[in-house]
Amino acid sequence: MTCTRRQFLRGALASAALTITPLPILRSASAASNAFPDKKFLVVVNLLGGNDGLNTIVPAHLQPYVDRRPALNLLENSAEALLDLDGRYRLHPALAGFKGMWDAGDLHVVHKVGYPNQNLSHFTSQNIYSFGVRDIGSNGDGRGWLGRFADTYCADPVEPLGVVAVGMGRPKDVQADVTDALTLDTVAGFDFREDRDWRTDHALRRIVARRVLEDETPPEQPAALAVFGSGRQAHELAERVQSGTAGWVDPGTYPGTTLGNRLKEVSRLLHGRDDFGTKVFYTGFGGFDTHSDQLGRHASLLAQLDGAVGAFADDMKAKGMWEDCVVVVISEFGRRNFENGSRGTDHGHGNAFFVAGGGVSGGAFTGDLVEADLEGNQPDFSYDFREVYADLVENHLGVPPDPLFPETYPRTGDIRLL
Fold first, then answer.
1. Whole-Å CA distances, 136 to 133, 141, 169, 330, 404
2. Do 112 and 373 meet the contact criterion of CB atoms below 8 Å apart?
3. Would you tell me how many other CB atoms lie within 10 Å of the CB of residue 181?
4. Which CATH class is domain 31-187+255-404?
5. Do the Cβ atoms of 304 and 259 come closer than 8 Å?
6. Does the pLDDT value for residue 13 go beyond 70?
7. Distance between CA 269 and CA 160 in Å, rounded?
8. Which residue has the higher pLDDT, 36 or 72?
9. What beta strand segments (E) does 152-255 contain?
10. Overall average pLDDT of the 390-397 stretch
């Protein structure tokens, strides 16, 4: 069959008749993936910039923490009381919601997470976390760890909703060979926009475009087929997302912050989870590079984290999804043990991660800090971040994690988050 000019233009116009938000190019339409044993899902919250773990989970029992941070230690410089966890560690006072999850047995803390031979560049360290490979040049394959997850567990049949990134552009974490993960800012914005010159014709033009894509015989030429196929699949995915989330009810409790809005969109997408089958949501927000004036800035950032995750947890509990949920809070590195001359902290290494959810082994720590950890430049790492991910993938999502991490990495065998 030869593609005529008429066929090519009809396929192209069916795609271009409506302006759309960026959509992944799908390889096939499919129902939700059945590779997983249940409806459990993971939410990754990335604190971009390098969160100061020592002022997030304060080692109140270690004197070097006070000595090396005379203006920044929260034991002497916080206007509000710190939130006690176990008589040794205390939470930043902005984290009252996390304290509530700890008391309820829904929060686990992993100390000193990192990777071998730390790199203190934001971009390099973020790439290491995104690709799941320490030596990207030698051992990377161009895919992110969630891209490998999608290719391995969401590719047969191809399921673009298996992994979804919300409000983060197209992060390197989701780069894949086979499966183009869905990326969006808002569900409402993930649809066909009206042409402002033809607003009254929007509905009709959408119907006509859809009928053209359904009725026209696909062309054989690769370029024409790509235009035609991407247009058809864009319509199908946009309609699927909009119809699957149509009945979602806003609980009205999400704060109007960057992370609050993004987790609200995760909740909206979870309304369609029986169809979508999303297993991993990736989101986060930035601002954690606190080189100066840290006390006030860090408190504001942690308050945003606490308010957003707290609202999300309450929403999941109300909807009966909290037992299926795990939220892991990460950051590309921690901060130095000592304050700098600008009342801030510089790039460090080993950091504390939060893991929260209804099935988490909560009210507990993995790892510990001792005085020697605070006497050098920064705490070293004890637990490779991939060991944390692997435990969640295997014991929460229920699939083998080894295909996600092609490089050998340190494993302690101590991680038991669930």
1. 6, 8, 22, 20, 14
2. yes
3. 27
4. alpha beta
5. yes
6. no
7. 13
8. 72
9. 163-166, 182-184, 192-193
10. 98
Q: What is the pLDDT of residue 35?
A: 72
Distance CA 53, CA 59 (A): 10
Q: Which amino acid is at 207?
A: I
Which residues, at least 6 apart from 35, have a Cβ–Cβ distance to it below 8 Å?
153, 154, 156, 399
3-state DSSP assignment of residue 279: coil
Residue 5: predicted pLDDT: 45
Q: What DSSP letter does each residue of 307-342 carry, written as one string? A: HHHHHHHHHHHHTT-GGGEEEEEE-S--B-SS--TT
341 CB contacts (<8 Å, ≥6 apart)? none
Helix (H, G, I), strand (E, B) or coil at 132: coil
Distance CA 158, CA 161 (A): 9
Q: What is the DSSP letter of 397?
A: I
CB 191 within 8 A of CB 238: yes
What pLDDT was estimated at residue 37? Answer: 84
Question: And the tokens for 328?
Answer: 């892991």
Amino acid identity, position 112: K
From CA 312, how far away is CA 310, in angstroms rounded? 5
Q: What is the pTM of this model?
A: 0.86
Q: How many helices (H) and strands (E) are present in the chain, helices listed first? A: 13, 14
Question: E strand or H helix at 152, and its extent?
Answer: helix 145-153
Please report, for the chain, the start and end positions of each structural domain, with discontinuous segments joined by +.
1-29+190-244, 31-187+255-404
Dump pLDDT digits (tens) for 47-93: 999 999 999 999 999 999 999 999 999 999 999 999 999 999 999 99
**Residue 48, amino acid:** L
Q: Helix 294-318 vs helix 96-103: angle between axes, to the nearest 10 degrees?
A: 50
CB 60 within 8 A of CB 83: no
Number of C-beta neighbours around residue 79 at 10 A: 8
- Is residue 144 within 8 A of residue 175, CB to CB? The reply is yes
CB 294 within 8 A of CB 55: yes
User: For the chain, how big is the Rg over CA atoms in Å?
Assistant: 23
Q: Is the backbone of residue 167 left (phi > 0), alpha (psi -120 to 50) or beta?
A: left
> In this structure, what token pair is assigned to residue 379?
């705490």
